[in-house]
Amino acid sequence: MADEIQNTPGAEPTVSAGSGAPDGQPPRDGRGPRGGRGRGPGGDNRNAGGRGRDGNRGRRDDRRNNGEDGGEELIEKLVHINRVSKTVKGGKRFGFAALVVVGDGKGRVGFGHGKAREVPEAISKATAAAKKAMVRVPLKEGRTLHHDGNGHFGAGRVTVRTAPQGTGIIAGGPMRAIFESLGVHDVVTKSVGTSNPYNMIRATFEALTEQTSPKSVAARRGKKIVDLLGRGGSVAAEADAAAIVE
After folding, report:
1. How far from 20 is each of 11, 32, 43, CA to CA, in Å?
2. Where are the domain boundaries for CATH 3.30.160.20 in the chain?
3. What is the pLDDT along the chain (246 residues), one digit of tens a residue?
4. Spatial distance between the Cα atoms of 80 and 199, rounded to a whole number of angstroms
5. CB 99, CB 111: distance < 8 Å
6. 3.30.230.10, 1.10.340.30, 3.30.70.1130, 3.30.160.20: which CATH number matches 75-209?
7. Beta-bridge mates of residue 150
8. Which one, of 146, 132, 122, 80, lies nearest residue 102 by Cα?
9. Across all residues in the chain, what is the average pLDDT?
10. Which residues, 6 or more positions from 41, have their beta carbon under 8 angstroms from its beta carbon?
11. Predicted local confidence at residue 72, as pLDDT
């Protein structure tokens, strides 16, 4: 009797227990008898569209390592970290601001600051900003400045002076970090006014950006380096001109 009802035209097909689909038809959505994903050709969709575990991990590794190999080596100096707090409903919310100086030790230097809820993230933001804002400063013999200079920002005023070989870096605080990252070995500095590291660094960069070399001055005036260093093209002037290395 049951067979007749099952095979009669127009009768509803029977449904197997737990399968969720009529007899003779594949389970819907590839689900097996217990409601889980089937292992058949239509049920295993984990690798569809290249979404396997190995494929995802490989793409993430490529993005992480892209552009990191073969980069120039930079000198990073953490100058100052400031912690601030904001009182909100339920307590205080702390944040950090970092000031970083970055240089290559060969005449290029930059500074940047970053803010974040955590110290490492603030330092990474400041380092990225410093790398984007690097400037080139001409150096005399690769160890000192070509001439004296002054700079000021806000209430901070600084003076930088060239020095003979063996003098060392006579500077303190943020200014020392700048000259160490820049690659200067002999310099004398003086800071007057504020001791705020942000103002001191900006004033120092103003003095460094005004530095010029005899080569650039000679090119701007349409003369030779020998004519700028000595009168009549003396032997000493020619030797000094030949020894200039920016």
Report:
1. 18, 9, 15
2. 75-209
3. 445 444 545 555 554 454 555 555 555 555 555 555 545 444 444 444 444 444 433 333 222 233 343 467 899 999 999 998 999 998 999 999 999 999 999 899 999 999 999 999 999 999 999 999 999 999 888 889 988 999 999 999 999 999 999 999 999 889 999 999 999 999 999 999 988 999 999 999 999 999 988 888 888 888 777 777 665 444 454 555 555 545
4. 12
5. yes
6. 3.30.160.20
7. 159
8. 132
9. 75
10. none
11. 72
Tokens of 91: 């307590």
Amino acid at 231: R
- Give whole-number Cα distances, 110 to 40, 69, 76, 120, 166, in Å: 61, 22, 10, 19, 25
The continuous run of DSSP H or E covering 5 comes out as helix 2-7
**Closest Cα to residue 98, out of 124, 75, 76?**
124
SS3 174: helix
3-state secondary structure 68-87: CCCCCCCEEEEEEEEEEEEE
Cα angle for residues 90, 91, 94 (degrees, 5° grid) = 135
Quote the pLDDT of residue 29: 54
Closest among 116, 108, 100 to 142, alpha carbons compared: 108
Helices 174-182, 197-209: crossing angle, 10 deg rounding: 40
Pairwise CA distance, residues 142 & 137, whole Å: 10
pLDDT in tens, 123-148: 999 999 999 999 999 988 888 998 89
| Residue 105 identity (one-letter amino acid) | G
Can you tell me the distance from the alpha carbon of 57 to that of 120, in angstroms, rounded to the nearest whole number? 25
Strands 75-88 and 91-103: what pairing? Answer: antiparallel
